[in-house]
Amino acid sequence: MHIEKHILEKVNEWLTPVFDEKTQENIKEMMTSSPKELEDSFYKNLEFGTGGMRGVMGVGTNRINKYTLGKNTQGLSNYMKKVFAGEELKVAIAYDCRHNSNTLAKVVADVFSANGIKVFLFSELRPTPELSFTVRYLNCHAGIVLTASHNPPEYNGYKVYWQDGGQLVPPQDAEIIQEIENLQYSDINFEANESLIEYIDTKIDQAFWKSTVENASFNTPQEAKDNLKIVYTPLHGTSVKAIPNVLDLAGYNDVNIVEEQREPNGNFPTVKSPNPEEPEALTMALALANKINADIVVGTDPDSDRLGVAVRDLEGNMKLLNGNQTMVVMTAFLLEQWKRAGKITGKQFIGSTIVSTPLMLDLAEAYGVECKVGLTGFKWIAKFIKDFPELEFIGGGEESFGYMVGDKVRDKDAVAAILLVCEIAAQAKASGSSLYQELINLSVDFGLYKEHLISITKKGIEGANEIKQMMIDLRENPLKEIAGERVVCIEDYQTSKGKDFMNNDEFDITIPKSNVLIYYLEDGSKICARPSGTEPKIKFYFSVHAQLDMPENFEKVENQLDNKIATIIAEMNLN
């Protein structure tokens, strides 16, 4: 097959002595046996997306390897020396259970240390939220996590955190990317200064666990805790290093771990995808819950920032909640706790995202706090905390099964969120209710909102072009009507413009630019299209709602809303 000139130029660079012999051998082998794979490995440079940099491991500019991560780290080192000139620079590094995470973490540590930067490196795998906590706890200038979150086993990734414990946001992200792009691979300094690398573990663990318990527990009587039977699965990931300890420290004694999924394993052998957003991921946990008659199932993704939750419905059957449902139950509980403690003064806020449930806005209004809505990704909620120091942050989340309790961790945090959800379940059960009943009560008070997400995967160069074309079509040939409802407004976050068709008005969008398009229908339904920043996917988010007159009608109205979403999906040819 013919390989384009710009790809061959990159390949030839990687065949020079700057790169080790094994890398060169792998490339030569690909040139003869897998030219298509060679093209995919080099046709572009791996880019920073919504959650840092994620990609398939292997050789090449479009892969995760010691050279692409080394270049990132060299660029970040150069940038930090400029921005924090004269300061003694410090970074913290953590990694998850993925293949090569520990060796790649050491490469990153080596490059930082070679540039005279003090490194705190976890001696073994740890949850991502613990790294966010550590950055602030040790007064670091930055932090790195080697993780690909819930992506398939062949992936790894590199997340960058800044001084505040949140992920990179503008303007630092663009400035750092520019610094990285200015480098040659020959500029990377891999020669470690071992005296600058300090291994950290139990001292930080205990501070993190203690902080989590202080932050996410709310005067639940011990009897109520003893009476809650919990099933927990780490899905072969890092949360096993924290969650059992945190639940134990908080007084939860009846915690039953799915043994087959306890051990960290980068192959994730018992699941198709280690993602609690996928119902299949919690199959084994649900089976154990039914066997021992548990009240609640909780599970986490490999780096322990997302959580999945299942609770018993009114008939006693285990039911998986979606990310929006867990988010509103947790937020409503936190708001109620703050209100009872007399801590709501109008100087507080909760956080959400443009693709999450509108019910968060209703909750904020009902409790007299602000709801700040940002782009997808917890880095934007962390940025709100930094940008509005005069406001106290109560909690916030997004539809993708992530939640943040308070501001001690500045990223989605399944460790604190699981403790919080157990607190809610224990208190509800003790008062003759249930977590599911609490969700129904919210729907009676505010209307029943139902959200749904579909992800369409399109791999490789052709897939990237198909995704691009879908967004172009939605922009240039906008739908006028969907499922019998008129489109009344379209917001385009790429152009920062919105169009209100009812009043024939255009308006500006003040949220930072992003490749996101939102359609609003006349009945209040909302449809959002967004290409993923870290995976070869385009995501469509749907939100519909209806009034709920009484709790008994919850499932009937929920079914009507599910049918409405199915009709919208069919009409948009997204099946």
TrEMBL record:
Keyword line: Isomerase, Magnesium, Metal-binding, Phosphoprotein
Limits of the Alpha-D-phosphohexomutase alpha/beta/alpha domain: 47-184, 216-310, 322-440
Pfam families found in the cross-reference section: PGM_PMM_I, PGM_PMM_II, PGM_PMM_III
Protein name as it appears in the record: Phosphomannomutase
GO annotation, biological process: carbohydrate metabolic process; purine ribonucleoside salvage
A single GO molecular function term of this UniProt record: phosphopentomutase activity
Species, as recorded: Flavobacterium haoranii
Listed InterPro entries: A-D-PHexomutase_a/b/a-I (IPR005844), A-D-PHexomutase_a/b/a-I/II/III (IPR016055), A-D-PHexomutase_a/b/a-II (IPR005845), A-D-PHexomutase_a/b/a-III (IPR005846), A-D-PHexomutase_C_sf (IPR036900), A-D-PHexomutase_CS (IPR016066), Alpha-D-phosphohexomutase_SF (IPR005841)
Cofactor section: Mg(2+)
Family, similarity comment: Belongs to the phosphohexose mutase family.
